[in-house]
Design brief:
The chain has helices at about 1-20, 45-55, 70-75, 80-85, 95-120, 155-160, 180-190, 255-265, 305-315, 320-330, 335-345, 355-370, 385-395, 455-460, 505-555, 560-575, and strands at about 125-130, 135-145, 195-200, 210-215, 220-230, 235-245, 270-275, 280-285, 400-405, 410, 415-425, 435-440, 445, 480-490. The termini are far apart. The protein is α+β, with helices and mostly antiparallel strands. The chain is globular, with a radius of gyration of 33 Å. Strands 5-4-3-6-2-1-7-8 form an 8-stranded mixed beta sheet. Strands 9, 10, 11, 12, 13 and 14 form a 6-stranded mixed beta sheet that branches. It folds into 5 domains: about 1-40, no CATH class; about 85-285, 2-Layer Sandwich (Heat Shock Protein 90), CATH 3.30.565; about 300-370, Helicase, Ruva Protein, domain 3, CATH 1.10.8; about 380-525, Ribosomal Protein S5, domain 2; about 530-575. Bound molecules: adenosine-5'-triphosphate and magnesium ion (MG). Magnesium ion binds near residues 110 and 175.
């Protein structure tokens, strides 16, 4: 007891002494012995136990050790990413059967659209869903006319999580993480035990490759069950088929809604969709222009974090700090690099891998103090105002459509563009809250509406200023539908299932500005419409009384019938000419 109390006292003393010092970095932080936990209050059960035992040791008995560090060491081992996501399937959007069906279709269609666009091909996509096993299981097949996948890559793409072509590039695409389609295959395998079937052809002169694949979840690697060359009716493209336990339903959050909205945001693509029940639906393309190619960009220095900068310097074993900055970040010229080095007090020609942590941190701080051009906006391809309106027309039977595409902006060094659109009137319900349609890189976001920056931004707009009703802090009420699209080289999703956009202030500000601009257009229209309605009302009153004025004048002035008709005609002409 005395011994431990002594340690605690010494520790406190040392703590006080150390608090006088200042520390430059974590490495300089003093190592302080951990306080003796036995000095703390005993837990309630332990106190009770000791109370029963009585004596002066009450409240101080050490809890019985259940494991030792050695025992723990035998249990500690690497966790395969596939095993992790098997347990955490909700993170990937597989937490209930209807969502699992939607996520599977979405992952396959997103990949198909990405592949076609990267290859400069107008996408023709088929989605076929068939019920198997009495409606508890579904077979999903998605066929595209994209560039196809080379044979050697097929097993890794579909049978290994965190494997893809988009994660390391900073360019607008639907996919980002390299998990999507393999996770869908893994979910199918877990719930039905059936493998994925992939058929892909890269050119007409070659046969298609067909694979039956499973994921070895323990090792996160593909298991090829069957491999063959087959004939197919198409020249190039990929067909992905898998079976999963799922639920098909119509209405909000359904696959039907997803396909319809995907057609809205991708007017250059055509879709043929065969649901498990009902008719096949065809969504023809309404534009033959492919979206402008989004250029790949390097990260902008304003968005870089210290760890990333350290990694860049470590990787650049040769060369100079100036060269490392210019080669790894966008908008860093030799002049900008020299300015950063000067501000940081580091030689521009110094070897980057030999910088001390303090020097690297000084460079990191100096980056923020130097004026660097905004990132290039050609890594982002928005839909465009006209096509946003065309998309809204496709989805909503309204009277009026307005849209706005904002100029490019930047969050954490990533360029992005926000677009908004409004449909108003027509058959939209007048007494319910606005329908909100969310897109990120042309992909409809159907779940987690409440957690998304788009919804919050739409609620933040003062819709009353534009002639609409709006309960406090909520969406406007009226015959209105609101669309918001975020296009970015990296969309900050709140989770791996990519369903809600994170609340970065820069992003939310742009969303509000885009919606406000649409709101202003709508407001002008609503007030013009009100003025017109008022004018019509007054006109109708006056028109009602013209014949009576005619009769009164005839009687008072003794007019003939023909003269009375002329008076009526003249009064009408006068009314039509003059604004009321
Ligand atoms: N239909 C396809 N045609 C051509 N390439 C494809 C196709 N489907 C997938 N790929 C390739 O396989 C890779 C892995 O796809 P996957 O869906 O697992 O990840 P991702 O699309 O990169 O990212 P995310 O996890 O965000 O979807 C893609 O990056 C792409 O290179
Ligand atoms: Mg994908």
């Amino acid at each position: 007891m005395v011994r431990h109390g002594g340690v605690a006292r010494k520790t406190r003393q040392k703590d006080e002494d150390q608090s006088q010092l200042s520390f430059e970095s974590l490495a300089d932080f003093p190592v302080v012995p951990i306080k003796d936990l036995r000095q703390e209050e005993p837990s309630a059960p332990a106190a009770a136990e000791e109370g029963a035992g009585g004596g002066e040791r009450a409240g101080r008995k050490r809890p019985e050790r259940r494991v030792t560090a050695e025992m723990l060491a035998t249990r500690q081992r690497e966790i395969s990413v596939a095993e992790f996501f098997t347990k955490n399937r909700h993170l990937l959007g597989f937490d209930n059967p209807s969502r699992a069906l939607l996520t599977t279709v979405k992952e396959a269609v997103d990949n198909a659209l990405d592949a076609c666009e990267e290859a400069g091909i107008l996408p023709d996509i088929k989605v076929i869903i068939t019920a198997t096993n009495g409606g508890e299981r579904f077979r999903v097949e998605v066929i595209d006319n994209g560039p196809g996948i080379v044979k050697a890559q097929i097993p890794k793409i579909f049978g290994k999580l965190l494997y893809g072509s988009k994660f390391h590039t900073l360019r607008q695409a639907r996919g980002q993480q390299g998990i999507g389609i393999s996770a869908a295959g893994m979910y199918g395998q877990l719930t039905t035990g059936t493998p994925m079937v992939i058929v892909s052809r890269i050119r007409q002169s070659l046969p298609a490759s067909r694979f039956l694949l499973r994921i070895d979840t323990q090792h996160n690697r593909p298991e090829i069950l069957e491999e063959s060359l087959v004939d197919v009716a198409w020249d190039h493209g990929t067909s992905v088929a898998l079976e999963l336990e799922a639920l098909y339903k119509k209405g909000p959050h359904s696959v039907d809604e997803y396909v319809e909205l995907t057609a809205v945001a991708n007017p250059h693509a055509s879709f043929v969709y065969t649901p498990p029940e009902g008719e096949t639906a065809a969504f023809e393309r309404t534009s033959r222009a492919l979206p402008p190619e989004a250029r790949e960009m390097k990260p902008h220095p304003y968005g870089v974090e210290l760890g990333m900068l350290l990694a860049v310097f470590q990787a650049a074993r040769r060369g100079s700090v100036s060269a490392a900055l210019q080669q790894n970040f966008s908008r860093v010229s030799a002049k900008v690099a020299a300015e950063i080095c000067e501000k940081a007090g580091v030689g521009a020609h110094a070897n980057p891998s030999r910088l001390t942590p303090q020097q690297a941190e000084a460079v990191y701080k100096a980056i923020r103090e130097v004026k660097i051009m905004a990132p290039p906006s050609n890594s982002v391809a928005p839909i465009g105002e006209e096509l946003v309106q065309a998309g809204l027309r496709r989805k909503f039977d309204a009277d009026y459509y307005f849209s706005c595409t904002r100029p490019p902006a930047v969050y954490r060094g990533n360029p992005f563009v926000i677009e908004a659109g409004i449909a108003f009137g027509g058959s939209l319900p007048a007494d319910s809250s606005a329908e909100i349609v969310r897109f990120a890189n042309r992909v409809p976001l159907l779940y987690q509406k409440g957690a998304c920056a788009i919804t919050e931004s739409a609620c933040d707009v003062a819709w009353r200023n534009y002639g609409l009703q709006q309960p406090r802090g909520a969406l406007p009420v009226g015959p209105i539908a609101v669309l918001v699209h975020m296009a970015s080289a990296w969309v900050p999703f709140t989770s791996e299932s990519k369903e809600a956009i994170a609340h970065y202030p820069e992003i939310m500000k742009e969303m509000r500005l885009a919606l406000q601009e649409c709101g202003r257009k709508l407001g002008m229209h609503i007030s013009a419409r009100r003025r017109q309605a008022e004018a019509d009302r007054k006109r109708s009153y006056i028109e009602k009384y013209i014949p009576h004025i005619g009769i009164a004048l005839r009687e008072m002035l003794g007019l003939q019938e023909a003269q009375e008709r002329t008076v009526n005609e003249n009064l009408k002409t006068l009314l039509e000419k003059r604004p009321v």
